[in-house]
## 1
Amino acid sequence: MSDLLPPSVGLDASALPVQPKAIDLAVLKKGTKDFLDFADSTKDVFYSYLYHRTGSVTLANTLLSEVYMDVLSKALSLLWFGKLRVSMLLDRADKAVKEHRETEADLDTLYLPTLVWLSDEERRSVGSMHDALWTLPDEPQRLLILSLLVGLSDEHIAELLEMKPGLVAANLAAAKELLISRWQPSVELQSKLQSIVFEPSLNLSDENALRFALVEKYNSLRMRRYQWVVIGGIFAVMSNVIVASVLAFTVVVAPPTSMRGTKSQVASLDAVLLKRQLELSDAKQAILATFQESKRIEALSVSRDVTALGLASALEALKTQQDQEAEANRLIKLLQRADTALENTVIKPMIAFLQNVVDLL
């Protein structure tokens, strides 16, 4: 994209880092050479990003120093074993923008007058572009600023953000569609989006102040790290001395007859163990007695049930016999009435037979 820009704007691609540098601790002991080289190679791109991210030169200058200091502190922390990346600067910048209060933008006085190749109507439309841009999520904002406003190619953005060029191109196309849908520029202006690049220049005094601040920050962090190392070493030595002193005191002061106390402790432990065994035996006996009593009660209950069952059967048989006797007596009475009425000699033998049956019952 930078090949299509006017010669007065854009960035020199040779001044940008091709690959983030790893922190060399051996070099850092001599000074902030690695970090200063990283700052020198990224400050132009990062300062332009900050300006288009905030729309204010004053806030961009403030955030530039603040973000580099924070990244330096993280790079010198004991938990950091990575590389210095441009994405670290961008992530910290996005967070810092949200933490600071909004300031008055100077796009109308600084940015728009540089777009002399656009018409007045197109410049007014570009003036509203940042308002739509700032409503987008962080990642689309980042890609659009680096591509449309800073003028980096897709390949260069992929190198800085450590992404694949194809992924950068796809995400950038989606971000442009989202921006156009919210910005609503004219069709003619959409064809000129590659010519709205603007790179604000960093003041030389501000740049020198940033370098001095980085050196002082590095020295203070290095001194603080050495202080923690010294304190940790002293604490480790003192801890070893204290532990060794306590062990020596214990060995020297302990009398030779200390084994007697040990034997007494063992004997007392044996007595406690014997007591626990006796308690366990008593508990087992109690459980056995309870089990036997339960079995006895269960047997008695079964016997009671059987007795109740036999009594019921006997009562049923007695009732049946009584019913049979009653029926036989009723028949005898009927036969006797018939004999008295008919005076038939045949009925008497039948009455005698039934009487025998009743006697047998």
Note: Residues 2-229 form one domain.
## 2
Amino acid sequence: MTINKFINARSWAARSLASLLAGFVLACSLPTAALAQAASAPESAAPAAAVAPAPPAAPVAPTITEEAVDNPYGLKALWAQGDYVARSTLIILVIMSMGSWYIIFTKLFEQRAMLKSARASSELFWKASSIKDGMGSLEEGSAFRFIAERGIASSDHHEGTMVETIDKHTWIGMSIDRAVGNVQGRLQDGMAFLATVGSTAPFVGLFGTVWGIYNALVKIGISGQASIDKVAGPVGESLIMTAIGLAVAVPAVMGYNWLIRRNKAVMDETKAFAGDLLNVLLAGKRA
């Protein structure tokens, strides 16, 4: 009985030892298998990466070309769609602008000619031996020659006429002053037009704008559509009138102020020449 128990105990110890050895062997084999599987993963991924197709090239953006589109609400549309009042207003503004620029350039050339005559009178006229010789050195039709001719005529035809009762000094002075006044009046020609254009052109353009907006609102009310395309177009066309009025008025005002300042410089030279001429005529050296 004792031997049987010993044999059974021995068999149980052998089975327990075998179980422990089998668990130890399995535990040691698991990390090795995991490491082998991890090592084989990059090797299997490398061929896959090698045969992976290249990414497609980025698409080239198409070239965008801008096409010129006619403005349906510009000056052309304003003229084509406007009534007789709008067209008349636009024609008036164009006439104002053309007249302003014509006067500005005409007066500019006239002032330059008078300043040139002033330099010629100081260089040639006063260096002549007599007034008549000096008058021949002045340009024909110039303002300074006109003043010299009037002064000489008043001095030559004083005696034996109705004006003989007026003393010679006063008569010659009056004649030269009148000649200077004529020159000044000629310089002022057209300046009133510039002042009128500068002060009224914005209001003429504003009238065209108000009239255009009125017509636009009437058309919108008749059609019954108040969308942005129905409002912006006609109103924008009407506002062009205000812009045109300002474009006409600004050059007229600036030209007026500029020409007035230049007229003052020209008249200073003219009055100085007239005063010197008066003194020479009263001195009696005319021949």
Note: The mean pLDDT is 74.
